[in-house]
Automatic annotation (TrEMBL):
<dbReference type="InterPro" id="IPR023214">
    <property type="entry name" value="HAD_sf"/>
</dbReference>
<dbReference type="InterPro" id="IPR036412">
    <property type="entry name" value="HAD-like_sf"/>
</dbReference>
<dbReference type="Pfam" id="PF00702">
    <property type="entry name" value="Hydrolase"/>
</dbReference>
<protein>
    <submittedName>
        <fullName>HAD family hydrolase</fullName>
    </submittedName>
</protein>
<dbReference type="InterPro" id="IPR051540">
    <property type="entry name" value="S-2-haloacid_dehalogenase"/>
</dbReference>
<dbReference type="InterPro" id="IPR006439">
    <property type="entry name" value="HAD-SF_hydro_IA"/>
</dbReference>
<dbReference type="GO" id="GO:0016787">
    <property type="term" value="F:hydrolase activity"/>
</dbReference>
<keyword id="KW-0378">Hydrolase</keyword>
Length: 237
């Protein structure tokens, strides 16, 4: 399919890099911190039990699902309180979490493809996560990064897509949203009136009952190749 676009909004986790390895390192780093600074907490909440606590805190605070940093802090605070640890350690423990959260390993194609895409059209990060693109080291490739915490609502809520379009100075239909998640990214973007691109690295079947993506690729390189073949709206103005 060929159509012109003016800008791209781009999901981060599981689109530019896999989140699962980050999650494992976060758990290990936080456990090591607690074993050094609050061993009673580490004993009561080893990795598996800390994961269970995190899931429970997330479920009990669904109103904060747009703010994953706050939910992580609440989880650490709860673990310290329940174990008789020093709740004053929350900030230091969160710093350990956040350092690991921003240590990413890109998919093999991602960085070079992102550089090609950003040279062609403005790119804005659009994420429910809490990665810091400056700390990750790729902030210079983005016009901005709009997170759910900053916006106050998470994908697939249409308002976060519309806010990104407004900051880009673009009509909704002139923006292509790119991401891995069928509901959060593709369906959310489509309902909000944006063009949509599904990055399907694992060869999954499309299983949405109502909507289909405008584009589907198995790498960001394929998206960059497609973008090189179509005129952008800026090219045509």
């Amino acid at each position: 399919m060929s159509f012109p676009i003016r800008a791209i909004t781009l999901d981060l986790d599981d689109t530019l890099w896999p989140f699962a390895p980050i999650g494992v390192r976060i758990e290990q780093a936080l456990d090591a911190f607690l074993r050094e600074h609050s061993p009673q907490t580490a004993d009561m909440f080893p990795v598996d039990r800390m994961r269970e606590l995190r899931e429970r805190v997330f479920a009990d605070n669904a109103h904060l699902m747009h703010d994953l940093s706050a939910l992580r802090q609440l989880t650490i605070q709860q673990a310290l309180r329940d174990s008789g640890g020093d709740v004053g350690l929350v900030d230091a423990a969160f710093d350990v979490f956040y350092a690991e959260r921003n240590r990413v390993e890109y998919y093999p194609d991602s960085l070079a493809a992102l550089e090609r895409i950003a040279a062609r059209v403005p790119v804005a990060g659009l994420t429910n996560g809490n990665a810091d693109l400056e700390r990750v080291g790729i902030g210079h490739l983005f016009a901005f990064n709009l997170g759910a915490r900053e916006h106050g609502a998470a994908k697939p809520d249409a308002s976060i897509f519309h806010a990104a379009c407004s900051r880009l100075g673009c009509e909704h239909g002139d923006v292509l949203h790119v991401g891995d998640h069928i509901e959060m990214d593709v369906a959310g973007a489509a309902r909000a009136g944006l063009r949509s691109c599904w990055i399907n690295r694992e060869g999954r079947r499309w299983e949405h009952p109502e909507l289909r993506p405008d584009l589907e690729f198995d790498t960001l390189t394929a998206l960059a190749d497609w973008l090189d073949t179509v005129p952008t709206i800026a090219d045509r103005s």
